[in-house]
Amino acid sequence: MKTVETDVVIVGAGPVGLLLAHILGHGGVRVLVLERDAALSDEPRAVGLDPESLRSFQGLDLMPVLEKDLLHGLTGEYYNGDGELLFAITDDQKGPLGYTQLAGFNQPALVRTLADELGRYDEVALRYQHTLTAFEDTGSRVVATVTTPTGEDERIEARYLVGCDGGRSTVRQQLGIRMTGVSNPQPWLVIDTVEDEWDGLRKYRFFCDPKRPGMFVQTPHNNRRWEWMLLPGDNREDFLKDETIEALLSPHIDVSKIDIYRRRVYDFHAIIADRFQRGRVFLAGDAAHMTPPFAGQGLNSGIRDATNLGWKLCAVIRRGVPAALLDTYEQERWQHAKQLIDVAVNLGNQIQPIDPEAAAARDAGFAELQRDEAAMDEFTGGLFKALLDRYFLEGFAVGIGEQYLAGRMISQPEVTNRSGQTRLLDDEVGGGFTLLGYNCDPAGAIPAAVLAPLREWGVRVVSVRDDGADGDLAMAPGSHLAELFAAGDADRVLLRPDHFCMAAFSADTAGQTLAEAAGMLGIQAR
Hints:
It contains 15 helices and 30 strands. The longest helix has 24 residues, at 328-351.
């Protein structure tokens, strides 16, 4: 049997597996991506990317090739069965992470682009018609058996294996990890259309009608996604027929001016794996969690998985960081994935009641909210708090629970460098570890015995200022980043490659805090 050696095996060439391959390839890690099918999937599935996902693509310099297939700044509207607006989410301005809250996209196009762009890395190989049949974690490596297109078996030896192989994950099943939660009792019809002419509006709309809940979201290139709930007694096959689809769409659009190019009936799930890791084997994306679509977070949660796990694998494999770092993947990702499942379920409860009395009670509640602008803002803000305020309570950081910024994602304002160029912060600080100072010289109070090894290890030292004083980067006053530093009572942070704060400190605590962070990375102070 032929044996192949690599650093990481990724099972599944969906968007999560492909993004993880990019992160690892970018970090110089050898990667083998196994896809059991003969081609990439053309399933429509996700249609919205959030700022955190776009930030991940930005860090890999993928935004220039993805931008043509994105529609930024979608506004959300939620109407009841009488056509009355329940609430709206306006999103036409860039937020704290540098992007509007939702960008429409086409998943098959994204997957094709991610696969094509793997050619950037000599260390990454994508193999179609390769089916994982078994694997063993020996404690020092993972040994996998794969069936090739010729029907022969191949042995693959790797340091780690990641299952990005979907909701029916072979990797998860072989690990014996169960998923818990509930499945939506009502399937939904999903329709993709392309319109002869686009009206120029950028929006998504939910029809919270107890007679038949539905929604649409506009995506690039005159495309639109429509979804309609099947009610008790509805026949799946009937809802795939032209006459049924046209009856659903005709109240909203001239069906003679659109092309219906894809139709599916899906069952939605709100389930999560009990574990995301066992030894040297990890789960990511739908293999780890599945989310109803109402908050648009299914794929975005998977992208967070890839981003979190990717830099950690690079750090362990290429930088010699202690392998205990990998145990923090589940610590940092499980709770947030579960939060977003709950957000989607709660939002779905607002959208899809089919009992007229329950819908009437909901409508009355929103009518009351409409009278109080502050209460409405609190409601809409609460729906997406798990997206807007990103932090972890357990994981790879110093002083979690003691320092506000520790374990919290740092936002991304526009900054101007010394050459007069204005760019997003990540484009200036890069994707590695960064020592960032706010209105101060971040290196000024750090003992040389601590700072020198960090610099030699590759940690960048950057100052950002909004006080008019000279610094590496300047930003406008009143930014979200300034608010974070004010709330954290610190003026310096050590940022991880995923832009989460590993340590926050001021001049009087700099030496001690950074020495502890360096020790976690395996860097010895002098």
